[in-house]
Amino acid sequence: MASRELTSAYVLGGNRIPFARSNGAYLSQTNQSMLTAALDGLVDRYDLAGVHLGEVAGGAVVKLARDHSLTREALIDTKLSRSTPTVDMQQQCATGGQTVVHIANKIACGQIESGVACGADTTSDPPIGFGPRLRDRLVRINAARSVVDRAKLAAALPLSLDLDIPSPAERRTKLTPGAAQAITGKAWGIGRAEQDEIALASHRNLAAAYDSGFLDDLVTPFAGLNEDDNMRRDISPERLARLKPCFGGPQGTMTAANSTTLTDGASTVLMGTAAWARSRGLTPLARVVDAQSWGVDYVDGDPKTQGVLMAPVYAVSELLRRNGLALADFDFYEIHEAFASQVLSTLAAWEDAGFCRDLLNRPEPLGPIDRTKLNVTGGSLATGHPFGATGGRIVATLAKLLADNGGGRGLVSICAGSGMSVAMILEAA
Questions:
Q1: Is 228 within 8 Å of 26 (Cβ atoms)?
Q2: What is the pTM of this model?
Q3: Cβ pair 203, 378 in contact under 8 A
Q4: In 3D, which of 68, 70, 56, 342 has the Cα closest to residue 199?
Q5: What pLDDT score was predicted for residue 133?
Q6: Less Cβ crowding at N or C end of the chain, within 10 Å?
Q7: DSSP secondary structure of 291-333
Q8: 50-59, 155-164, 311-320: segment of lowest average pLDDT
Q9: Residues noted as catalytic
Q10: From CA 255, how far away is CA 241, in angstroms rounded?
């Protein structure tokens, strides 16, 4: 194969539907209907009807069996050319971020000139299946060679319902992300007041972003919603302080407000080369500079340093090292707010000299960040967190922030279940 120079991959725009609290406005919607709506909005906004794209990469975490080709089925319902290939991906809460990395890498390698990274998730349409006892019996009935054998097996079917209901709990530890983060946050000494401050800022920043019109070309209405219905405009420190803990026991510090809620939604990111953008009359917003994934041993490791949501701490360190950057070298920080406790644990680790020396192999701490640059248009605590859609929301938002800023650099940090993560660096185009 002939060698070639890497091509810069740019974020050209994005679109998502408003995010909705589980079992609410999108109760009758599916991953496919939401992803189709988000893609349709992107097609309309960027005049892509009938256009062949290099690839559309999408995914969802909570999927029914019928969603085995989710992205392809969603694309077929849009006005994009059906010659556009698709691929489905999944990495827990980092799914949307990984689809961006996938498309960016293909563009960089010269394999495609354009593409869409996308994702969706609904917890209102969960994949409730048969449990192992009933499933085993039904499979055996189907495999039986005679009617008599089938009848004998059918007679032995369990009378009680044996259902397999999805749970956010990790299979290895049996702990939900919230329960696990409560342990990690306590180990880092994360307090209630500072978590509530993160939540308060998230809601106020998101409301301001809607009111200023910043989100007008990033969000299209869907199913009766014009804004994320998890956003609370009337939020106040007093209201937050009255909430009882939901993780960590009666003395816990994590509440329903400083933890993300189950959410439904979908997002998309349009990407391409500078030449492809020019051919479509589009102006690139930001360049994807680099990305890094990481995993931690959340099963047997120390929950303080290897907690299930601590992987971004390591991913960002490695990403900065490879690019010769310091943590302070950024104009915007987009840290996924799975829990305010997780954000604060991440920041605490970067400021801890012993952790950075022993775990990150750094002679000095990475240091603090300027909090006024953190999630400046709101984060997951306010928008909600549809697992497969969060990465697309973050990347499209950051790209526009950089473009509106007229320059600069942004850092993306996304934690994911099973001790995984993805981090990215974006620069204004």
A1: no
A2: 0.94
A3: yes
A4: 342
A5: 79
A6: N
A7: EEEEE--TTTS-TTTS-TT-HHHHHHHHHHHHHT--TTS-SEE
A8: 155-164
A9: 93, 385, 415
A10: 9
